[in-house]
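Memo to structure team: turn this sequence into structure tokens by end of day. - J.P.
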Amino acid sequence: MDIHPIDPEKREAVLAALEGIERRHDVRILMACESGSRGWGFSSPDSDYDARFVYVHRQPWYLSVNERSGPDEPQRDVIELPIDDELDVSGWDLRKALRLVSKSNPTLSEWLRSPILYRGDARAIASLREAVTEFHSPLGSWWHYFNMATANHRGYLKGERVRTKKYLYVLRPLLACQWIENDPTPPPMAFEDLLDRLLPEGPVRSAIDALLEVKRRSAEVADGARIAAISDYIDTELQRRSNAAPSLPTGHGDSEALDARFRQMLREHAPE
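Reply from structure team:
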């Protein structure tokens, strides 16, 4: 089974949407990937497509006195298409992406590690990856994933029946925390990579594998009874981490070097 399925027609629809964005907003898209459950590896047959991208404007856009995105429009650093039943397409301006990198936001790091790349400029991607590495904060990333796991657990896994996918939305960030505790590199985006490293075998892994099989063949709204092995594992791991954050590096980067990288990327990649 392909755990990262992309229908050829949907791929073409995403690519067409990206081309339309470039024309309408006068930008150049540097990279675009799949960010949701299809990228994580546990999509359902009716899961939508979550395309995410980083784009750059012409250089004068960054130097305007009165900021604007278009005629009579306020300047924004996000482009979003209306969400329909199948496609969710949105992206960040390069400056916003690098600003979040400077705060060690793990989101761009995940995009750059997505197993599904719709399109991308190799030099731009390499430069973004270098920036992510320079500013990676294990402690900041740990808190990002721990808070995500805690919020999803509190919001969706307290009853006797739960929506199947919500187990996975707690397990993925929880395993990302475990990865960070044992490895200085950012955690992978693909859920299977986390599982194979951190839960290669045992009763909990067997229960998760069974859950994945159900998730991959069931509708997005499917729910089921509480799975004791997984619930107990999640409860134990969250409780253990709620007592104290691990001792991890905070990370540091050179803000002036990041500004220089931004200017260089504008020179190399902004539309002429």
